[in-house]
């Protein structure tokens, strides 16, 4: 039985790697469809998950959030509201397009930290941010990275959901100092900001700082009724999510229905712009990952890497382990609850005296990878990108490469700033 379980884990892990490889090398093939087929194949051949269990891996909350939020902002795009938003942010950036991703980074930090958290912040900013990037000639990859990184930089605020989870887990192991959540928030925000700076240096088009982009939305026509209705809907979404802590997806669906009834989206043109290729891609891979977890593939992957750990690299190893595991599972819902309770035993075995460094390594490492389109944040940016299917596939591969590389970057930063070798 143990051998069968081990074989199932290896087989599921190989299936995931093959699907990701096929999706990268064959951009015209939707990797999500391949992932669903692979999930049923793995379940059938290994006997670890039956068809009903595989269907339960469908990420219904993510699906509804993607549909609702992309529909709302597709309406905003079709009736010209996003063009107005473009003009506003270009004016804030003084017409210099290179500043737009930086503005969105700080907006994401602020929105995430004041209460709604990283997922809500990304859901609010990704649709307009990705549209602005394409319209203003800014790298959509850079915009996606800075929105996701900014959202995660604010995620460990003591009043944000992820920060609350972190505090609760630490309290369960006897760490109740009220200043520790603030230290974790500051440290994780700092590490995330370093990666954001790296993205800006790598992907910014600095020529746009020297030559201001023409403000395409200097529109003489007054804002019309559908645009006012859409602006009111977007503001309502922000208020209901930020102030009343309502879920983004259901609120977006209600607002879309109201806009349709009031004629803000004539002929329901927004339905034609739903990014079904991205939705199939993201939900399909999520189904395969649920099979990976059930078959023990995730545990096998982490165990293989754990063998390389040493007493003087514990924070780097923790960041690497949690980063890799987080690429295939929920950062705050699975990885943190699995690793944070290990802190006392890690301290006993390694002689580490400060639990904050270990907590930061776990928290930062698990969330740096969330830029990947395999995570909710990256998925929101991919689905919000107003580009063709093939261009979206290219963006998916680039964002996947950046996101997965953050496991190594997170480990390196943990080694430098937490293990402190020098």
TrEMBL record:
Lineage, top-rank taxon, reads Bacteria
Report if keyword Transmembrane is assigned: yes
Q: Which residues cross the membrane?
A: 58-76, 97-121, 141-170, 229-262, 274-305, 317-340, 399-418
Question: Ranges for the Dicarboxylate carrier MatC N-terminal domain?
Answer: 13-155
Keywords tagged on the record? Membrane, Transmembrane, Transmembrane helix
Any Pfam family the entry gives? MatC_N
Enumerate the InterPro entries for this protein. Answer: MatC_N
**Protein known as:** Transporter, UIT1 family
Question: What organism does this protein naturally occur in?
Answer: Leptonema illini DSM 21528
**Species lineage:** Bacteria, Pseudomonadati, Spirochaetota, Spirochaetia, Leptospirales
